[in-house]
Design brief:
This protein is α+β, with helices and mostly antiparallel strands. 43% of the residues lie in helices and 24% in strands. The strands form two sheets. Strands 3, 4, 5, 6, 7 and 8 form a six-stranded mixed beta sheet that branches. A two-stranded antiparallel sheet has the order 1-2. α4 packs antiparallel against α5 and α4 packs across α7. The relative contact order is 0.09.
């Protein structure tokens, strides 16, 4: 088997998870699980020990973690956190109250381990996303993740947009909110039209996130509806 640092890093992480979930595990078990030799497992355990993980060896039994040791919480990228926040909006529409409660509590825990800047952005996105019902089940947009990021980072976005009449225009927009009914829509301030507009995501043919930031629109989604609709 070709020895790869990437494979090794993945295996070390997986071994650590195994040590957390089982009170004791043998080198033979780990070798079978990861399809490597016991010698490789011995090297991996030594690597974990050198990195500060308190792995204890119980003679004739196997490996165990020192009691009370906890692995630091998993860190999410902004885009991964955004995806989870969006998933929360979908779950909140579920009819089963216990499922909604469990997922909502999980999201609270996830938000609690985010860095402060990412936490603020996650909360902003949750407040600026409205999800009703998926009528169009097809995957008709590739831009949702990038637009979420632009919305929370206040990045200007340059788009090529085709309206319902088939006319294509280039716009410079300030993303404000994401809504879903029969399709995904972006609410954004359009610098070309000098007003807030709705853009259907499947009609955005090209997207370029700009480095330039815009001044945040300090209003809630409800305040936007009250003011403009």
């Amino acid at each position: 088997m070709e020895y790869s640092e990437t494979n090794r890093l993945s295996r070390l992480t997986a071994i650590l998870i195994q040590l957390q979930t089982k009170r004791i595990i043998t080198a033979a078990e780990l070798a079978r699980k990861f399809d490597v030799s016991k010698r490789t497992i011995y090297r991996d355990i030594k690597a974990l020990e050198k990195s500060g993980v308190p792995v204890l060896t119980e003679e004739g039994k196997g490996y165990t973690l020192m009691e009370g040791y906890k692995v630091p919480p998993v860190m999410f990228t902004e885009k991964q956190a955004n995806a989870l926040i969006l998933a929360e909006q979908l779950v909140l529409k579920n009819k089963d109250a216990s499922f909604v409660k469990d997922y909502s509590e999980a999201i609270v825990k996830i938000k609690s381990i985010l860095r402060y800047t990412a936490k603020d952005k996650a909360n902003l996105l949750a407040n600026r996303t409205q999800y009703n019902q998926v009528i169009n089940q097809g995957r008709n947009s590739n831009n949702l993740s990038d637009l979420q990021n632009a919305l929370t980072s206040y990045n200007l976005v340059k788009i090529q947009y085709t309206n319902k009449e088939g006319i294509a225009t280039k716009r410079l927009i300030e993303p404000f909110a994401l809504l879903n009914s029969e399709n995904w829509y972006l609410v954004a301030f359009c610098r070309l039209r000098k007003e807030f507009r709705f853009f259907r995501l499947d009609r955005i043919k090209k997207i370029e996130i700009q480095l330039e930031n815009f001044e945040p629109h300090n209003m809630t989604l409800q305040e936007y509806f009250d003011k403009y609709h």
